[in-house]
Amino acid sequence: MPATIGQAQMLRAGLSYRQLDHWTTRGWLKVVGDAKPGTGNARSWLVGEDRVAGIMVRLTDAGIKPDVAEQIARGHHEIGPGIVVMVDGMDGTEQDDVMADLAARLGWG
């Protein structure tokens, strides 16, 4: 069974319970087991989903729709032709990979 985290840790990412429920039900946050387990049944999320949720919160606060925010938080940084999004908190390797990919596509390399 994969390592999991609980609701309290997910909420520490800065989202509300309602956002957590909605984003999980929509599939934007990955839960272990049933995304809609019913009243009184706890959910568990995959380790790392709190990081995804935290990035999504920042992006949606900036006006980006949750479905696009989820893609960016999971590393899909090109949201349109020539439009690349980088988020503070990305590690150096991830930033380098995004920039190298963009430079190659634009013929800068």
Task: Characterise the protein shown here.
The chain has 109 residues and is mainly alpha-helical. The strands form 2 sheets. Strands 1-3-2 form a 3-stranded antiparallel sheet. The protein has a two-stranded antiparallel ribbon with strand order 4-5. Strand 4 and strand 5 (83-84) form a beta hairpin. It is elongated, with a radius of gyration of 16 Å. The longest helix has 15 residues, at 92-106. The model has no long low-confidence stretch (mean pLDDT 81). It contains 5 helices and 5 strands; from the N terminus they run E-H-H-E-E-H-H-E-E-H. It starts with a strand and ends with a helix. Helix 3 packs across helix 4.
Shape, principal axes of CA atoms = elongated
Count the E strands: 5
Q: Beta-strand level of the residues, as a percent range?
A: 5-15%
Spatial gap, N to C terminus:
43 Å
Strand order of the largest sheet: 1-3-2
Unreliably modeled segments: none
Question: Summed up, what is this model?
Answer:
This protein is mostly helical and 109 residues long.
Keywords:
elongated; 11% strand; 109 residues; mainly alpha; 47% helix; two-stranded antiparallel ribbon; 3-stranded antiparallel β-sheet
SSE layout and pairing:
Blueprint lengths: L3 E2 L1 H5 L5 H10 L4 E2 L11 E3 L2 H13 L4 H8 L4 E3 L2 E2 L7 H15 L3
Antiparallel strand pairs: 1-3, 2-3, 4-5
Helix pairs in contact: 3-4
